[in-house]
Amino acid sequence: MTTRPTPRPARPHFSSGPCAKRPGWTAQGLEAALVGRSHRAAPAKARIQEVSDRSRAILGIPDDWRLGLVPASDTGAVEMILWSVLGARGVDMLAWESFGSGWITDVAKQLKLENHRTIVADYGRLPDLKSVDFSHDVVFTWNGTTSGVRVPDGDWIAADRQGLTICDATSAAFAMELDWDKLDAVTWSWQKVLGGEAAHGMLALSPRAVERLESHTPAWPMPKIFRLTKAGKLNQSIFEGSTINTPSMLCVEDAIDGLTWAESIGGLKGLIARSSSNLEVVERWIENSSWAGFLAESPDTRSSTSICLRITDEWAQHRAADEVSVTVKVAVKLLEAEGIAFDIGAYRDAPAGLRLWGGATVESSDLEALLPWLDWAWAEAKASTKA
Questions:
Q1: Which of 131, 276, 316, 355 has its CA 20 to 30 A from that of 210?
Q2: Residue ranges of E strands in the chain
Q3: What is the CATH number of domain 267-386?
Q4: Which CATH number fits domain 32-262: 3.90.230.10, 3.30.1490.100, 3.40.50.720, 3.40.640.10?
Q5: Whole-prediction pTM value?
């Protein structure tokens, strides 16, 4: 039986979304929030615009890109751009995990685009990126949040592409280098690497994406919260501190708090370094683990934020998938009951395993304290299953 560990994580928050708040966060940081004020008032608009300005500076978004706050988290941002620009040409849909598969459902079953291709891979792998047709629009996730598999870089994207590249970057932004020259529409939310509050999304548009918005009229009705144009032109106000619907000024203030913290640790380089360090902690542990491995098959595609683990225990190889899944759930519940780790089970559509958030708001010391507890919980769960 594995010895029960003694050190405990100072913060047991390893959820992949909403994610851990920044180190040192308290609600007192929100005292300046403009609650009770109209989001259309000049001071409130200025605070909303501050989120965009600080985000642009940290991420290195080109000056000629538009950046704005939109409804419904990253999901809303992705669906807004899909509904607004697709249909002008064929589209290649890439998927290697749940959220990419969800965007395929939108295109195939909701928008019902006939000229679409799906390029997919099983959990743990990337699809064949060389097969992408860049005369088409291309939709993909930079980092597969539910598989722990990311694209290694933007080198696979054609510089002379004819179509638009639409990138769901919610678990990559602020933790990985995004190749802005190879992208045209990028989305994310505050609730991932910045540890912000949910319900709001960010949408960044290149000049090519703006040109498409102003030259293409979708064949389907457009809900109000998806409308990015007005009288055939980009609605500039959305990218100048105004919003399509009412945002939470508490959430806006919290986003500014996270961005200010990010600046204090060195901006994007500091954020990437912290996330990379977290992955390294798990990598060292995996080297000696007898029961767990990375779901990502290649180190080049291994995520530093959504660190997904599969069960490699020889015992599990001789058990039914349902039995292994139940054993993992027992281990997860043990860790929750002990107050060691919350919300670390694999995503519901993913293979049985664990998912540890390694974004910048997580301390490496907490991951180091957690890992022996994973060994303990797995041993306890396996013993109870055997019994």
A1: 131
A2: 66-71, 91-95, 116-120, 137-141, 143-144, 149-150, 165-168, 185-189, 200-205, 229-230, 233-234, 292-294, 306-311, 353-357
A3: 3.90.1150.10
A4: 3.40.640.10
A5: 0.97
